[in-house]
Amino acid sequence: NWPEKVTIKEVGPRDGLQNEQIILPTQSKIDWIDQLSDTGLSYIEVTSFVHPKWIPQLSDAVQVAKGIKRNPSITYAALVPNERGLEAALEGEIDDISVFMSSSETHNLKNINKSISDTLPVLKKVIDGAANGGKTVRGYVSTVFGCPYEGEVSMDQVFRVCDQLFDYGISEISLGDTIGVASPRQVASFLESAVKRYDLSRIALHFHDTRGMALANVLQALECGVETFDSSLGGLGGCPYAPGASGNVATDDLIHMLHKMGIQTGIKQEKLIKAALLMQSFLEKPLPSHQMAVYNAQ
Ligand code: HMG
Ligand code: MG
């Protein structure tokens, strides 16, 4: 009962680069995103319009958004925390606005400096403003499978936040395993409850591979009916406000698994490798994915 086709949302230029020590020059980011646009990806999260003191790596968000070549068949997305960020994202002509918050109070506070109840009205304003600007909105909910500060998070707590965001009118929720603690059993039991409340075509999963569990969790989610996954080329990524968080499941590893299973993604592996090599040259280090380890050993 695996799907024939899966949608992959590339988050490397945002989740990947926000967690690197090095701040890349704007032109390098643009060159990399332009190469990603040539791989067959249909969705690329290119930056985030957050406070530059909080994420200095992405302080050139407007220049990046304005500098990239747009492929009309690709949706270009970015993270937006508040109305100030939305204004900049609209100026940057971002197609899909991603709001974000946590299902756990402490991570939410550390990451966006507000309680959950104070965050929701801010996101509602962003969602309304984006809709007025003719944009679609995606919502990230973090720490769904565990919080670095609070440990386990109850499903009720996650559903409360998701219900609220769907009520505000977002098109899709991406459930974040921010610190890579989920297991396939936990994913299955979560999705068995989620499918009773939500149409799974509006749910994406965002696994970080901190403990090497991401592909196992993707496989479980596929079996439960999820068909959209976030990933980062080469396995870059992590949230600077979640201690110990490391990279997303690698796009190149994910499509290797899917293609081997006969599941289509529309993405060309050799073009991904080319884009990964470009990033390796910018960062002057090998990227952490399995596919790049194989490639680099040849
Ligand atoms: P704050 O300091 O509470 O903001 O930060 P504020 O509203 O009190 O404003 C303070 C000052 O910041 C003001 O300037 C604002 O104008 C300015 P002043 O009047 O003092 O000169 N300001 C801004 N400047 C630029 N862009 C903005 C902006 N907003 C306010 N958008 C804020 C609150 C949310 C802005 C801050 O906490 C922040 O930027 N946090 C971002 C943290 C972040 O990006 N984390 C990583 C992304 S989330 C993630 O990785 C998880 C995910 O991958 C899923 C998963 O893995 O689970 C998505
Ligand atoms: Mg993430």
From TrEMBL:
Entry's CDD domains? Answer: DRE_TIM_HMGL (cd07938)
Answer yes or no on keyword Transmembrane: no
Q: Any idea which GO molecular function terms this record carries?
A: hydroxymethylglutaryl-CoA lyase activity; metal ion binding
Checking InterPro entries in the record gives: Aldolase_TIM (IPR013785), HMGL (IPR043594), PYR_CT (IPR000891)
Where does the Pyruvate carboxyltransferase domain start and stop, copy by copy?
6-273
Q: PROSITE patterns of this UniProt entry?
A: PYR_CT (PS50991)
Any one Gene Ontology BP term: L-leucine catabolic process
Q: Tell me the Pfam families matching this sequence.
A: HMGL-like (PF00682)
Keyword annotations for this protein, in alphabetical order, are: Lyase, Metal-binding
Q: Does the keyword Metal-binding apply?
A: yes
Record-stated family: Belongs to the HMG-CoA lyase family.
User: What is the protein name for this chain?
Assistant: Hydroxymethylglutaryl-CoA lyase
Organism placement in taxonomy: Bacteria, Bacillati, Bacillota, Bacilli, Bacillales
